[in-house]
Amino acid sequence: MRILAIETSCDETAIAILEIAKEDNFSKVTVLGNALLSQIDLHKEYGGVFPMLAKREHTRTITPLLEKVLEEAGLWQEKEIKSIAPEIAQEVENLLTKEEGLSASLLTLLSTIKTPALDAIAVTHGPGLEPALWVGVNFATALSVAWEVPLIPINHMEGHILSSLLLKEDTAYMLKTPHFPLLALLISGGHTELVLMEGWGTYKVIGGTKDDAVGEAYDKVARMLGLPYPGGPEISKLAEEARAHHMQSEFSLPRPMLHSDDLNFSFAGLKTAVLYALKKIPTITTSTKEAFSLEFENAVGEVFTKKVEKALEETGAHTFIVGGGVSANTHIKRMLTHMIEKKFPNITLFIPETKLTTDNAIMIALAGYTRIHTIEKNATHTPIKAIGNLKL
Ligand code: KG4
Ligand code: ZN
Fold this sequence. Notes:
The relative contact order is 0.17. β8 and β9 (192-199) form a beta hairpin. The longest helix has 30 residues, at 286-315. The chain is α/β, with parallel strands linked by helices. It has helices at 40-44, 51-72, 86-95, 102-112, 130-147, 156-163, 214-224, 231-244, 268-279, 286-315, 330-343, 354-357, 362-375, and strands at 2-7, 12-22, 26-38, 120-126, 151-155, 166-169, 172-176, 182-187, 192-199, 202-208, 319-323, 348-350. α3 (86-95) packs antiparallel against α5 and α8 (231-244) crosses α10. Strands 5-4-1-2-3-7-6 form a seven-stranded mixed β-sheet, sandwiched between helices. Strands 10-9-8-11-12 form a five-stranded mixed β-sheet, with helices on both faces. It is globular, with a radius of gyration of 22 Å. The protein binds 5'-O-[(R)-(carboxyoxy)(hydroxy)phosphoryl]adenosine (KG4) and zinc ion. Zinc ion binds at residues 156, 160, 188, 324-325, 359.
């Protein structure tokens, strides 16, 4: 089965084409093409992602990115007579009226190449920034109309979960069938959730943040320390340096909800605690930054370790995975791995390859693959909508 996937929920425009074949207890995954354009440098100036700027960039870059992926996958074949049926051209134009210039660039591409052999198109329709999501949704819908391929709407967070189950074996990838129930800790710029999966496609959110997402807290604390956006990797780097020279932070920060009787989180207080502590310091040196990064990350790591332990005990899960941008964090990974090896030696742990932890389209294609059988029947009937706060 060959799936083209599109991801535009935040500040990354990503398209991938995967060939996936079912084997006994896994599926063999071949990445035929994978392209990603990050807008981070553009948003850096503002210290965060601006939805309308993100939309403009997705609109500008998505057609060239598709060309690149098709070429990489060997699916770029020029037509002898360059043309496109007028009713299709009209529908593509109608679908892309809100994305300036996009129907023109897409129609040029569609009239140049032969229809590539694809079984489905998967697209992220939430959660994320709505103006950004709409670019991907409208573009994917136009492609599915022009190429007569079923369209599968995907929840971005499902993609983060599934990318953890993708393991590299020599040159190929395997999508593992995990031993359910599976517990997922999803940690990103917009989410902090504990999700229980009883089987493919079933999700129960059993814990979440009451205020800020952990990635958001990382980014905000980094900003207070004068570090660039995105702040997660910056704080992580400083904290690791502090650990390398055995620094004992002279600051102490709270461990919010560490002993609460539920599986919820809260990071707003932690962020405010950093703000107040910083106010008392006349000059912020590199050493102050290291000390705060260390203590902040230790607090976050402790909270996650404790809550995951509680969730594993309560759910009896057989598999544990971490997903989302923050799962690239060395310290969090190390603490969770250590706790599971010590306390739950029978639980299988999956942590995604670092390059798959941040937003990409490979994970959206995987989600499309696991959903294709349920969606295909009515895929062409209901138009897909972008939903900013889409839940799992
Ligand atoms: O999943 P993602 O790429 O986008 C969202 O869907 O939010 O996650 C981005 C978040 C940002 O807040 C970024 O600072 C954080 O992931 N992040 C990290 C690390 N790498 C990225 N946070 C902590 N440590 C890291 N190494
Ligand atoms: Zn994400």
